[in-house]
């Protein structure tokens, strides 16, 4: 008896590779994920170079990547994975919640970030979110992190609607996103539906040439759409 009498297939487990130079941390992360049948930890790497090699061989869906590692650091490893295995999502880890290397990893293509003192529930939730293609960073933490380490050019950049051919609505969504609002808050501020905001964001990402919310917010600070220290609409 296999239990699959209705012809429906079991959902595929999310394949996870863990990269950290501390064996105890790797084991701890694996022990959090392994009991959940929704995840399969397919390998562990002790440095960024090994993470890239294993990712090519094992083809994980998500790599949980420590930022600061020997041989090849997590930023460089993330950059290589984004270019060489674009279907593989990276969830960056750092000892500190405010770390300039995290911004570099997000710029390189990481889809999310977590400090290492997160709870097991937060790790599980973040891996799920990253696997779906969303950015696993709390919007206001993302804004605070990026505004601390990304500096806009002086003088301020061109009007938003002159950047990548954005419509006025897309430009406003981008600005509100960069000030730390989540989708529901943007929809409320603009008095439109959540699905409308999602459509604007999809179009916005395509025009900016970014893959997720984190890269869009970085671009907002780099182009002067918002200024460091401005965290509200």
Major β-sheet, in short?
A: 5 strands, parallel
Distance between the termini: 58 Å
Which ranges are low-confidence, i.e. pLDDT below 50, for 5 or more consecutive residues?
none
Taken in chain order, the helices and strands follow as: EHEHEHEHEHHHHHH
Q: Multimeric state of these chains?
A: single chain
**What class, by secondary structure content?**
alpha/beta
Strand tally: 5
Strand order of the largest sheet: 2-1-3-4-5
Q: Percent helix among the residues? A: 40-55%
The portion of residues forming beta strands comes to 5-15%
Average pLDDT level: 83
What integer value in Å does the Rg equal?
Answer: 19 Å
What is the overall shape? globular
Tally of contiguous helical segments: 10
Could you give a short description of this structure?
With 233 residues, the chain is α/β, with parallel strands linked by helices.
Can you give a write-up of this model?
- It is a single chain.
- This protein is of the alpha/beta class and 233 residues long.
- The chain contains ten helices and five strands.
- It has helices at 23-33, 48-58, 74-84, 100-108, 120-131, 139-149, 168-178, 183-190, 194-208, 213-222, and strands spanning 14-19, 39-45, 62-66, 89-94, 112-115.
- It has a five-stranded parallel sheet with strand order 2-1-3-4-5, with helices on both faces.
- Helix 3 links the parallel strand 3 and strand 4.
- The longest helix is centred in the C-terminal third of the chain and has 15 residues, at 194-208.
- The model has no long low-confidence stretch (mean pLDDT 83).
